[in-house]
Design goal:
The protein is of the alpha/beta class. The chain has ten helices and 17 strands. Helix 5 packs across helix 8 and helix 8 runs parallel beside helix 9.
Length: 317
């Protein structure tokens, strides 16, 4: 379970920031979709973009982008998962009133929903008490659920997705913890791989981190990661994307580059632009199919007021 790692594994990476980690608060700017908007870049889901994405389904195949998780899956502490399978009202030979000798299993799960493959909603991370669209924490973040910006508000995310293979660009099977890439590296890798980035896209990065570290060294996997630095995130968010994701548990590098601030890319995407983040995306199998452009489909569980959600998007190609 994640508890055996405690805080030490992850925090060892987070503490290696050096000077300049504190980010100055900036004046809040209302969303391009109006001061009452709660869904941010999901406004970019349109019939026209969906029809364009459908044209990318040429083989009739699909692959899951979510990984399998269980009680041993490492996660940012103190997140964890516990599953129990029970047989209600069947103890001691009790018969169920179904008219035949029926038996059945049910399951009970106690979990943080920010574990494994997940979507970060717009109420997940902000700065100086402010979240997306100038929402103040004290006004909407209730202990029983968010009053605004809940993940249940997100409509099905359907659109064109691309994968940029940053490990290939670096000439390595996988990037190391702390390796980071910015706008120049992203654009160079995309150009070399024939990938174009368009408004409304879902852009995913393959670093090889999860495929090479999650099973072989789970402690190392959750203690650090490669990822997009602040320069790269600022460029990506300027492209008016629907979502940004990676095959890592946090998207940004850990330890962070000097001056970036830990997970400050979350602020740049979620708070400033309302762009969703997709973590621990299973990009390797799609790339091995020779595919780096496909139709992306996600319909997350709609539990009212959640900040994040475990997901399994589908790549259709």
């Amino acid at each position: 379970m994640i508890k055996k790692y405690g805080f030490a594994g992850v925090l060892s990476g987070l503490m290696a920031l050096g000077a300049g980690s504190a980010m100055a608060a900036t004046e809040c700017v209302p969303s391009q979709w109006g001061p009452d908007d709660e869904i941010g870049s999901a406004n970019l889901v349109t019939p026209e973009r969906t029809m364009e994405a459908l044209k990318l389904v040429k083989q009739g195949k699909s692959l899951p982008l979510g990984i399998v998780i269980d009680s041993k899956t490492p996660a940012f502490p103190p997140r964890s998962l516990s599953l129990q399978v029970v047989q209600p009202n069947q103890q001691g030979g009790q018969r169920l009133p179904f008219g035949y000798p029926a038996v059945y299993n049910d399951d009970i799960i106690q979990t943080w929903v920010g574990i494994g493959s997940q979507i970060d909603g717009l109420g997940h991370l902000g700065e100086a008490g402010l979240y997306y669209n100038c929402n103040k924490e004290e006004d909407f973040a209730g202990i029983t659920g968010l009053k605004k910006l809940g993940v249940h508000n997100i409509p099905p995310l359907v659109g064109r997705a691309v994968i940029i293979d940053m490990a290939k660009h670096a000439g390595k099977p996988f990037l190391d913890a702390g390796d980071n890439f910015g706008s120049a590296e992203i654009q160079a890798a995309a150009k070399a791989q024939g990938v174009t980035i368009k408004e409304g896209d879902i852009v995913l990065f393959h670093t090889g981190w999860t495929e090479n570290k999650l099973d072989s060294d789970p402690k190392a996997w959750v203690s650090g990661e490669p990822g997009v630095n602040n320069d790269g995130m600022r460029w990506l968010t300027s492209q008016n994307l629907m979502a940004i994701g990676a095959d890592t548990w946090g998207i940004e590098p850990v330890p962070a580059p000097k001056g970036d601030g830990v997970f400050y890319g979350h602020v740049l995407a979620l708070q400033e632009k309302g762009i969703y983040l997709l973590e621990t995306m299973n990009t390797g199998p799609v790339l091995r199919e020779g595919v780096n452009e496909f139709m992306f489909v996600l319909g997350q569980a709609r539990i009212r007021g959640t900040v994040q959600m475990i997901i399994n998007p589908v790549a259709m190609y």
